[in-house]
Amino acid sequence: MKKIVALIFLVVSLHAGVNRALVIGVNGGSLVYALNDARAMAYLLKNRGVTDIHKLYDSQATKSNIMRHLKSMVKHSHQGDRVYLFFSGHGTSYYDPAIQNNPRLKKMLKNSGGLIPWGVTPRTYERGMISSKYDLAPLFRELDRKKVETVVIFDACFTGSAFKDFALHQSTKALPISATPYYSSHGYPYKHIVYLSATTQSDFASESHRDRRGYFSMAITSCMAKHNSIKRIKGCMAKAKTPQTAIILASNNLNIFPPNQKYKELVYNPPSNPLKERVFNLANNHKSFQLYTQNQRGLLQQNYNPSTPLDLYLHSKKSGYLLFLMLEASGTLEMAYPNSRLISIQANTNKKILTLTPTEPFGEEILGAYLVDERSAKALQKIYKRLSKGVLSSREDIDSVVRIIRNGMIEGARISLISRLE
């Protein structure tokens, strides 16, 4: 009998502690940074020891794909495992303005919500959305029944009630993070599921165009990088002050990650050097002069993949000579152009000007392109010739470059790119 008990214990131990994640990002319409949020979450989870991560981005994130992966994850998870579900994209609910002329869909979404996969529009919500009532809640109940510690994070509009399939008191009142007792008194059903939503059931989620991220995703990844307990994460989120009202539902004794896990702080510090950043503050970012990147499909991209080269493009309505500067994550300020030759830019140019191969350390890179007159370009070229590999390090050289730009700049543009890991 002792041998049988020991064998059972061994089997349980072997399958316990598996961490699985499904990370979904869907851009579309006015939503342009959902993929950035998904990649940031995947990066965070990977560095927290989650080894089984499935990522569905844009065209991969169809309803059939999402549900297939989610059902498989639920099927293969057991007590002692941890499951993470992250979705950044469009969401809907009874209060969504896009469905107010569709009584059938409003009835379907009453006291609930839904996620919008790739390629689904308001006209096809009814058959194309992932319904909280019919698709998600049955799987959530199964995870809870199995006592699988689960973290569900939705950065989407109207998802405050997307965890349930039963009637709760309807209210358009914004429910703050501290309003967990409201849900508890109405029967939040899960003991083993942490539910985090960017919004209430009647609120819009929003993005920061400066940071190229969703406000909620930025806040929750930062808080999850610093804290593990729900209590501390609630306090951290309350200080974040996102434009919309975030929802956190769970008992305070739950943890986002295994309680005994040791991990390092993941929040990197972007380049912060006032002396070097002065150069980029001179850029005025007019529509007539833009610096941007494109992927192989010709789509604009804000992040870069360290494993692939980065192509930079310049759009200019005016003529002049090119000055190109990079402030790397390491803090190195480098002049790429002008180097041994001057680069002439003709009016109405729209072309690739440079291909970069990213190197460690990865993080935020600030890039600046400036159109200057010929006299200024030659003065900058003289500075380059006395530098080592174009690196600007001395205050004297940086002050000289700033002075030359101020006196001879025709146009200027800057962008910031953040590394991502696949």
Describe, in plain words, how this protein is organized in 3D:
The protein is of the alpha+beta class and 422 residues long. It folds into two domains: 15-249, Rossmann fold (3-Layer(aba) Sandwich), CATH 3.40.50.1460; 274-419, Phosphatidylethanolamine-binding Protein (Alpha-Beta Complex). The chain contains twelve helices and 21 strands. The protein has helices at residues 2-15, 34-46, 63-75, 103-109, 125-128, 132-145, 180-185, 215-226, 230-240, 274-277, 374-385, 395-408; strands spanning 19-25, 52-57, 82-88, 90-92, 114-116, 130-131, 149-155, 193-197, 207-208, 213-214, 247-249, 289-293, 303-304, 310-316, 320-327, 333-337, 344-345, 349-356, 364-372, 391-392, 409-419. Strands 13, 15, 16, 17, 19, 20 and 21 form a seven-stranded mixed β-sheet that branches. The chain has a six-stranded mixed β-sheet with strand order 2-1-3-7-8-11, sandwiched between helices. A three-stranded antiparallel β-sheet has the order 4-5-6. Strand 7, helix 7 and strand 8 (193-197) form a beta-alpha-beta unit. The model is unreliable at 1-16, 166-186, 263-271 and 296-300 (pLDDT under 50).
